[in-house]
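Try it yourself: sequence plus zinc ion, in.
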Amino acid sequence: MRAVASAIAMLLAAGTVFAQGTQGQYEGPIFDTHLHYNQEAWDGNTGPFPPSEALARMQRNDVRAIIANSRPNAGTQTLAASRETRAAGVTVVPFVRLYRNREDYTSWFRDETIYEMVLTELARGTASGPYRGLGEFHLYESANANGPVAKKLIALAEREKLAVLAHVDDTAVDLLMANAPSKGQSLRLIWAHTGIGGTPVERVQAMLERYPLLMGELSYRPGLTCEGGRLCPEWRSLILKHPGRFMVGSDTWINQRWSSYDETMRGYRAWLGDLPDDVAQRIAWGNAAGLFGLR
Ligand SMILES: [Zn+2]
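Structure, out:
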């Protein structure tokens, strides 16, 4: 009896330490707003992550919706059409990727055949419904935001109310916004990584205030998390100032990211636990669900 009592006492003590040591984690659903299903992941169902494997990762992490895009777009088409996707309860929000192959990464912004490919893909749609956005695309030099095809695609996105998922620096965000007919007031731009080069928090805040539809996706964001994977104070206060403007994503750009998908999601759940419940829910799910009309 005494052994049982002391075991209980130890458990209670351990519980207290746990409660003091961490603030718990976010437990709700996740909308993965930056998911790639590239050719090498599935490769016609013979790659290491066929739809069943990719979806098992989403399901066990309670990822219930994804912004899907892929090089080439066949990966997104496959996920969008898969019976397994529906069985897993995952909603696919498809985006047109601008890349047919790796060569396109560095020339898409001036390549007319990319514009034609996007129009063809938009007309075709997917088994999960029409495309809802363009990207992810990269601009390794900000000035290429002024490339002729980049300009046309931004105008198209705003006209057709397509979101844009852009992996670019802050200068390029300004250029892309300037190229939108509304000068950035009506362009829904999801900023992949929210400044992967470490754009200062004050600058991110100023951009959010300048562009009403700019959203920040937080994968790979330097300075976001501090000791023990918890949210750094300056990011916590920025998110609390703009709780409707941030989202999370896996960025499965290489197969290793599929291998570590569970860890990525665990990492998000840990720092989301540093926010009030309603804010955590918005970042994890509600902001993206609202954008694309999911319940
Ligand atoms: Zn990416």
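One thing you can check immediately is this: The two ends are 51 Å apart (CA to CA).
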